[in-house]
Amino acid sequence: METYPVMLNLYGRKAVIAGGGKIAYRKTIGLLKAGAKITIISPDLYSEFNNLLESGQVEWKQKEVEANDLKGALIVIAATDNKSVNRKISGLVSPHQLVNVVDDSRLGNFHVPAKVTRGKLTIAVGTDGASPILAQKIRDEIADVYDESYRDYLLFLEKAREKIYTKKRHITLRGQLLKEITQKEYRTTENQQKFLERMNGKNGRAETKP
Ligand SMILES: C[C@@]1(CC(=O)O)c2cc3[nH]c(cc4nc(cc5[nH]c(cc(n2)[C@H]1CCC(=O)O)[C@@](C)(CC(=O)O)[C@@H]5CCC(=O)O)C(CC(=O)O)=C4CCC(=O)O)c(CCC(=O)O)c3CC(=O)O
Ligand SMILES: NC(=O)C1=CN([C@@H]2O[C@H](COP(=O)(O)OP(=O)(O)OC[C@H]3O[C@@H](n4cnc5c(N)ncnc54)[C@H](O)[C@@H]3O)[C@@H](O)[C@H]2O)C=CC1
């Protein structure tokens, strides 16, 4: 069976992480970047958490995890170092909760891919648990190709697409324009600017490429 990749919008949604170790920390950072509201349930916390706690970015309940702690969470991560506790958590979640079990992905309903993010561009690599290190390696290779400059490029593409849709255009022309801006020449700010001006109808220039 294949997995089904999705890009979740977790902004403001509740996430519960059981365990306060290194792996819990890694998952916390990923969830924070997505704007989730995170509660850590753990008798102790890995020192890296201190900053997050002090700045109020995460809530910590200093205790062992119980069924009640999972209530209201969209996403639950079982990240303790105790296999039977992690297994128990996977059995306690409701069928509509997302649960990731860090030491046995078959017990959960999702696992976490390696990813590279460049602003609005996200590329995720998964191996279904076969080799997290290969997922990391492929991610690193992809990250070299799709470097930091893609952050601004994506902003341009978004803006240009909006402009292309704003004005009433024939569907064929619209498609041509949307395709055109993904070509290499539009990686330069100069050509991006020219394109936006063209869409604004400045300088009386034609819409199609000369
Ligand atoms: C199933 C999954 C569940 C999940 O956690 O979602 C899972 C499971 C397990 N990982 C284990 C080990 C390691 N995992 C990593 C690294 C990452 N692991 C991640 C995801 C996943 N790991 C999910 C599958 C993803 C996929 O295959 O697509 C990444 C991609 C994302 C993330 O964690 O955020 C992150 C890279 C983050 C980044 O670089 O960005 C490293 C290397 C390192 O830490 O540097 C090692 C040591 C090397 C090794 O063992 O291979 C073990 C054995 C634990 C033990 O020893 O007991 C298990 C348990 C098992 O296999 O059953
Ligand atoms: N998915 C992944 O990427 C990886 C998963 N792992 C697995 O993740 C597990 C956790 O690894 P680390 O974070 O390095 O361990 P760790 O030892 O640093 O942290 C474990 C945490 O779980 C807490 N804990 C234990 N029992 C608990 C309970 N009943 N309720 C709440 N919290 C409890 C501990 O207090 C501690 O904070 C490991 O057992 C390993 O199998 C390890 C490497 C990678």
UniProtKB/TrEMBL annotation:
SUPFAM superfamilies in the record: NAD(P)-binding Rossmann-fold domains, Siroheme synthase middle domains-like
GO biological process, one term: siroheme biosynthetic process
InterPro entries in the cross-refs: Met8-like, NAD(P)-bd_dom_sf, SirC_C, Sirohaem_synthase_central, Sirohaem_synthase_N
Domain of life according to the entry: Bacteria
GO MF annotations, alphabetized: ferrochelatase activity; precorrin-2 dehydrogenase activity
Catalysis: reaction(s): precorrin-2 + NAD(+) = sirohydrochlorin + NADH + 2 H(+)
Pathway(s) served: Porphyrin-containing compound metabolism; siroheme biosynthesis; sirohydrochlorin from precorrin-2: step 1/1
Broad class of enzyme this protein falls into: oxidoreductase
Pfam families the record matches: NAD_binding_7, Sirohm_synth_M
EC number, UniProt record: 1.3.1.76
Name recorded for this polypeptide: precorrin-2 dehydrogenase
